[in-house]
Design brief:
Helix 1 packs antiparallel against helix 2 (39-58). The protein has helices at residues 11-29, 39-58, 124-134, and strands at residues 2-6, 61-66, 69-74, 78-83, 87-93, 106-111, 116-119, 139-141. The protein has a four-stranded antiparallel sheet with strand order 1-2-3-4, covered by helices on one side. The chain is elongated, with a radius of gyration of 20 Å. Strand 3 and strand 4 form a beta hairpin. By secondary structure, it is of the alpha+beta class. 16% of the residues are buried. It has a single domain (1-142), classed as PH-domain like (Roll), CATH 2.30.29. Residues 61-135 form the Uncharacterized protein YyaB-like PH domain. The chain crosses the membrane at residues 12-30, 42-63. Pfam families: bPH_4.
Length: 142
């Protein structure tokens, strides 16, 4: 049975992702004619391209337990599969390093082989409980 957990989204990240859209709207509200020169055409194109890039790189962001696999997905790039029986430790983290997590309230997952993943499920307790049902040997620490 598949269980899907979506990433928690921090308010600051939502504001940062909304900023290019707001900039685009403000660009067209300016009282002067925004298309009076070449920059008036290039700036909106750059802003729209940046918005699409953010959307394709970040969304959707979720973590799915499917049998013995934890599938981590974020946008079109991040596709990581971990074997749940190989997970040795799960602990809280606030590491700001780039990760498939849309919040700084994260979980650091370490496998027996030493690989790590930083994720931020909306309901951390429920997520960890689901992992422990599959692998009760996971060490949980704060």
């Amino acid at each position: 049975m598949k269980q899907r957990y979506y990433s928690k989204v921090d308010a600051w990240l939502f504001i940062a992702l909304a900023a290019p859209f707001i900039a685009l709207v403000l660009f067209f509200i300016v009282p002067e004619d925004p298309f009076n020169d070449v920059w008036g055409l290039i700036i909106p194109i750059i802003i729209v391209a940046f918005c699409y890039l953010i959307i394709f790189l970040c969304l959707p962001c979720y973590y799915e337990m499917d049998g013995k696999y934890l599938r981590i997905r974020s946008g079109i790039i991040v596709k990581q599969d971990l074997l749940i029986p190989e997970i040795s430790e799960v602990k809280d983290s606030h590491d700001p390093i780039t990760a498939p997590a849309m919040s700084l309230k994260r979980i650091k997952i370490t496998t027996k082989g030493g690989s790590e993943a930083l994720i931020s499920p909306k309901n951390k307790e429920e997520f960890i409980a689901s992992l422990l049902r599959i692998n009760p040997n996971i060490k949980c620490s704060k």
